[in-house]
């Protein structure tokens, strides 16, 4: 719960139709939700500096499938591998839980996210027309199928 305010700030800066603070607070309290944060020290030279949330990922695991619902990284940390790390952790944790297929939706115009997902074996399997608001845009449905029994 200590990270919810920071998560909400990252969410609002990242998405045109952001989830609310109350939504994140409910997710944190829900044992069926997988919510992981990446933390870092803003100024390693300052020993008094506490860790701060650099990004987060929300997912659900059900039987042999997973759905990644939300991934966001603080603007100043984009391009530093935070999103890649969060995704890799979630995929690894999913594999440990027996996940064979992982799904997510991404804005068609989000080239950086699409490249990241493609690098992890996600493929376009569908489209949701006018799925996103602010601005209105299609979502591409992506799926990753486990490449070996270990989720490799």
* Span between termini: 32 Å
The helix fraction, in percent, is 25-40%
The gyration radius over C-alpha positions equals 16 Å
> What's the number of structural domains?
1
Descriptive notes:
The termini are far apart. It is globular, with a radius of gyration of 16 Å. It has four helices and six strands; from the N terminus they run H-H-E-E-E-H-E-H-E-E. The mean pLDDT is 91. Helices cover 29% and strands 36% of the residues. The longest helix has 15 residues. With 152 residues, the protein is of the alpha+beta class. It has a single domain, classed as Aminopeptidase (3-Layer(aba) Sandwich).
List the SSEs and their pairings:
Layout: H1 4-14, H2 21-29, E1 33-40, E2 52-62, E3 65-73, H3 82-96, E4 101-107, H4 111-119, E5 123-132, E6 137-145
Helix pairs in contact: 1-2
Concise synopsis of the structure shown:
With 152 residues, the chain is an alpha+beta fold. The protein is built from 4 helices and 6 strands, in the order ααβββαβαββ. It starts with a helix and ends in a 7-residue tail after the last strand.
What keywords describe this structure?
alpha+beta, Aminopeptidase, 29% helix, 4 helices, globular, 152 residues, single chain
